[in-house]
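Priority: low. Protein: Putative ABC transport system permease protein. Input follows.
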Amino acid sequence: MLIYLRVLKESFNFAISALKNNRLRTFLSLLGVTIGIFSIIAVLAAVDSLKKDITGSLSALDNSTVIVMRFKFGPSDIPRWKREQFPDVTYEEYQYLKKSLPDLEAISFALGVPGGAALKYQEVTTTGVDIGAVTHEYYDIEAFELEEGRFFNEPEAVSASGVIVLGHEIAQNLFGESNGIGKEIRIFGRRATVIGILKKQGQSLFGGSRDGQAFVPANFARRVYGTTKGTVFPQIVMKPEDGVDNDEFMSIVEQQLRNIRGIKTGEINNFFVNQMQGVADFIDNITGQLNIIGLVISGFSLLVGGFGIANIMFVSVKERTNLIGIQKSLGAKNKFILSQFLFEAVILSVIGGLVGLFLVGLVSIIASQFTGDFEFVLSPFNMMIGTAVSAVIGLISGLIPAISASKLDPVEAIRTGF
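Result:
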């Protein structure tokens, strides 16, 4: 065992010495692998960061959350022209499901107010505010965190009271550093009292942050917009109790709605029962495809780097043919010569990979500074992948040159050198 360790150590020292003696050639060889590893790890880091940002913006809703609306999350087999004829879900259907559904933890009716709204306090106006018009139960479905005040209650929601809960950014725009609780603002041309302010969440690359949103009772918005199709995009949001079989729960929801709407056996549903888990699976599928496409493209860069290392190793073998002959004549075994050149190729490739990882880390830090709250992630797993891939590329690229060096006849090698 000690003999093998000694051979490995000597081979390693020979490889390091060879790389030091040919610094320019070493640098040029490193460049190809560095670019290849940089490309691969940059793609993995970018896709991981993208996935983290999207899932982070959706994390407020549990994966078991069910959303009923006339749209489907993801692709559908039903033609678009037919989907466009589907009716919106109604407040009355929400009330019916609330009374009739078993194993229901919370259910809320929600409207998406189109185009954003203008909020005005005294002389200050904030435009384009994303308004969430929901019933009071929405607080029990989404993971809201209040910095000040409270969410509206059932009497306020049912009676369409003029109350509003503001996102952190909206509150700062309207009130600055002063406390906005209890202050009266104007929304939809009506008065509304601020009763709550959400904790700061931070922006994501694709939006979804609550900082730029505000929440009012659904009935308050219904008085302004009504329920005209294609205007407010109503939806019913449900959260089943823990431990409930989600597929069975969704089947019950589907059957209840078919009964309400009088859909006959054999007729298709004119609504969609969506689950947040489906969104998560869809995101996983998309990011997986992005990973594959990116890795294929980056693989070409790494392939060029591998050819570069192989070429340099063949040159190295030719240059040191005389030295190989002398080593063999003094008793060096084939495996010593083989390991010597393999070590050189692997070390060369790993150093290039480490430089590539360093550059990815540097770019990630710089990019994060220019993208606000979006953070580029260089995970330890991706770093391990980069190091392992570079080592494998070095091993494969150096294998044929190393084998050819180990099989040289010592007499012919010395004669060729002279």
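Residues 2-57+282-417 form one domain. The chain is about 55% helix and 15% strand.
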